Structure formats: structure tokens, C-alpha cells
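Tutorial, part two.
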Amino acid sequence: MSDTYFQPVSGFDLPRFAGVATFMRLPHVALTEDRINEVDIGLIGVPWDSGTTNRSGPRHGPRQLRDMSTMIRAQNGASGVRPFELVNCADLGDVPPNPADIIETMERITSFYSIVKSAGIRPLTAGGDHLTSLPVLRALAKDGPLSMIHFDSHTDLFDSYFGGTRYTHGTPFRRAVEEGLLDPKKIVQIGIRGTTYDNEDRDFANAVGIRVIAIEEFHARGVSDVLEEAREIVGQTNTYVSYDIDFVDPTFAPGTGTPEIGGPNSYQAIQVVRELTGVQIVGADLVEVSPPFDQSGGTAYLGASIMFELLCVMAAETLK
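Running the prediction step on this input gives:
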């Protein structure tokens, strides 16, 4: 049972348009505060998109996600899970990036998450572009390689861009495998689609044993069957969940830098997370929400809803 201090502010007590916006109206707890050691799951923003290679904007994602997350209420309407009563959750603030220096920013992110890990907190991250996942994994995988369930329209397994740039939002999981942060035989990537430059990323996946489930297979088999296989691949190992909002069809999530048609609808977007029950999630992220491409906030609200579903699964597993 969580401490009452960590309960979100109710819309019955303060209108949702009022007050300081934090993730899901939770208390803000800085890493330097004494109460940091009481937090079980920490929601963290990484406002950074220096890994973006075309349409930038995810640096503004955490702020809009916080704003739209004020619509989240205390109980999951489908599962009945009340995560804020099961575990202590808090908004841990943002990792301060250096937008002019990719390497330094990754070091800042890894340092921040190393403190989070040392405090025994499982992080739920709002990006930021997908390169964000790499420095987070550098902190979380210090004790050994993790498994990963990855929802995306792209594999992010390319070696380099523009003749040798090795750190972009299209390369994080290639680097993570090379650095021993992820066990490639316990990685499953779901929803991959779109036009391609070549087969470099798929060839790498095949060579190291990464399971890639293309969108055609996803639609043919259905959510439950695909996620059953995903759960079998990671088993009871420590698992990271990475969710790129462009996994979702751009009809439902236009606010992203690299959209691909033919993806899941908004219901399937949360259904895949609900099927993660039983997975030992040590951390998760929701990345690539880009407010400049959807100023209405609809994409961010879907992103915040996905984060809530992830939080519910993570909170429920804490009790087992």
C-alpha cells in the first residue's frame, strides 16, 4: 500500500487545468530530497532530440505529455488496477540536456538514471527521441544485459548515418547490443514497417538473433497471439519496454517525426501494453512524441495513456 503523500491530486479537489503540471498530477520529488528513497516507480522526462535526423520536436514531448497526463485518473477502467495505491509513484523531474552535445547529454542521462537505479526506483521515461533509450540502458544494465520488448515502426538497428555518425535515433539498439546492454536473443521488435534504404538493420537482427515481427504479421496474427510470443521470448528475465509512439498509425498519432502508415489503432496501442502482464519490467519509455506536429495534444494524450497502462502493469507486478 502506498503512502498517501504519493497520491495524485484529484480532479474533484483541483480542476485539471489548474496547478503545476506534473506527470499524472503526482508529487514532484527531486533526486536530492530525502523522500527519494520512498519512491518505487519514478516518472522522468528527457526533453532532448539531438538524435533526430529529419523532423525534430520530441524535445518538447515531456512538457506536453505532462500537461495532457492531468487527464489521467486513479483507476484503470479495464483492469481495475489502482497503481497509485499499490506503489509510491512520483515525478522525478527532467534530465537537463545539453542540446549542443550528444555525448555529454548521454552522460548526463546515464548519471541521472544511475542514481535512480541505486535508489531502487524503476523508471518510466517520457522522451525525447529514441536515442534516449541508449543512455538509460547504460544505467539500468550495469548488472548484466536486459531483455527488451520494443514497439516501433522502425528497428533502430542501423550502424550509422551520414557516413559515420553512430548516435542517432535510428541506432540506439545496435549500440545497446554491441555494448552488452541487451541480450539480442531476448529482444522482440513489434510493428516494423515502411519503406527502407536497404536490409542492413534486418540483416543485423537476423545475425544476432533478434526477433522482428513486421506489421503484416502483427495484423495477421492479432495482438494476443503476438504478445504471447513476446512474453515467451523474454520469459522471467529483467526486461526493458521501449515504446515509440510511431508504432501507432499516424491517423491516431500524427505528432511524431517519422510516421509510417498501416499501424495499429489507438485501442490496439494500449491493448499491447495490457498484454505485458507477468513481464518483469525494470524500466520503460515512451518516446518520439513531437508536439509541433500535433499541437492539439491528441498524440500526447495517447502517449500519456500508454504510460499509464505501463505504470499499471509495473505496479501490479510489484506485488508478486
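Residues 160 and 166 are 4 Å apart (CA to CA). In part three we will examine how such features are distributed along the chain.
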